[in-house]
Amino acid sequence: MASKRTSTARQTAEIITTYSWAYRYSIVILTANRLRIFDALAAKPVTARSLAHRSGLDVRALTILLDALTAMGLVVKEKQRYRCPRDVSRYLAKDSPDYQGNILDHRFNLLQHWVHLPEVVTGGGPAPSRRRRRGRRQHRDFILAMANIARTAARALAEAIDIDRYNRLLDLGGGPGTYTIALCSANTHLTATLYDLPETEGIAREEIRRAGLGERITFTGGDYLHDPLGNGYDLVLASNIIHSLSLAQTESLMRNARRAMIPGGTIIIKEFYLDESRTGPLDSALFAVNMLVGTAGGNAYTPSEIKRALKKAGFSAIRMRRLDDRSALYTARNPK
Fold first, then answer.
1. Which pTM value belongs to this model?
2. Burial of 172 by CB count in 10 Å (0-12 exposed, 13-18 middle, 19+ buried)?
3. Considering 106, 113, 116, 243, which one is annotated as catalytic?
């Protein structure tokens, strides 16, 4: 029995050490991405001195950082030259179609909010650093980050719904338009309105133009909680936006969306999945903390909370299904 207790205590100590030191890995990779080191190492092997001279970095500091990245398995060191392995370049070299560096830039920006967690738990959120409006660079980092993480999910969503049934789509908080583009690509007669903050328009139009869908996708800038959303839509999508809202705001958004829909239309909500105990999955529970430090009322929500908000807004035929370990898809109908 004593041996079992000792083993359990040792495991607990290891968990505490691992979690409390985890920021080391995060800050090293986020810093390397911020300084575009992975881009620099993707072309050919270089010495730390050569890269420092070319990039305007400190040689000693860069060498220590590169050695740490090597120890983490993200960089290879051979005869004092460093290179980026192909599997890493696939996600962190900017020219790659699978590039994920924008989401890392966004996570770098989030660090300034997370360090205020003690103050937030004491006095409520958001963090002092988040009470100011996002700067231009931070907003661009955020919108492009949404494009990074949405590409695969958008294709999966297009396959998961019977998109051919619909004619007019309203994508609420659609950011760079990744979901709108995927759905319009899957249904050649679908037209869409991408609704987001006015400062997002330039980035969204770049993505829409690149996809060759400028004639079928329009952009409207505004506040989706308070401004009119238009009318005549038979499909409304709210993908990963209600976690930034309180439940009262979510109900308000659902009512506003319903006013823009035709009778019999469908609303789709894609969100983080949080079980009814609110303690799992771990990623979702931690994401709720991210919303705590980053928003005034946002959270991760359980299926019963999201279904209740839809019902209060007047929707019927509400259904939920898991998409993966961390996310769920909700559908509901605007009654005829």
1. 0.91
2. buried
3. 243
Q: Are 99 and 93 in contact (CB under 8 A)?
A: yes
Give me Rg for the CA atoms of the chain: 22
Percent helix, percent strand, percent coil in the chain, to nearest 5: 55, 15, 30
E strand or H helix at 141: helix 136-160
* Residues 231-290: tens digit of each pLDDT: 999 999 999 999 999 999 999 999 999 999 999 999 999 999 999 999 999 999 999 999
Q: Topology of 2-91 in CATH? A: Arc Repressor Mutant, subunit A (1.10.10)
- Report the alpha-carbon distance of residue 97 to residue 110 in Å, rounded: 25
Q: For this structure, is 243 an active site residue?
A: yes
CATH node for 119-333? 3.40.50.150
- Non-local CB neighbours of 35 within 8 Å, separated by 6+ positions: 55, 57
- Give pLDDT tens digits for 91-100: 999 999 899 9
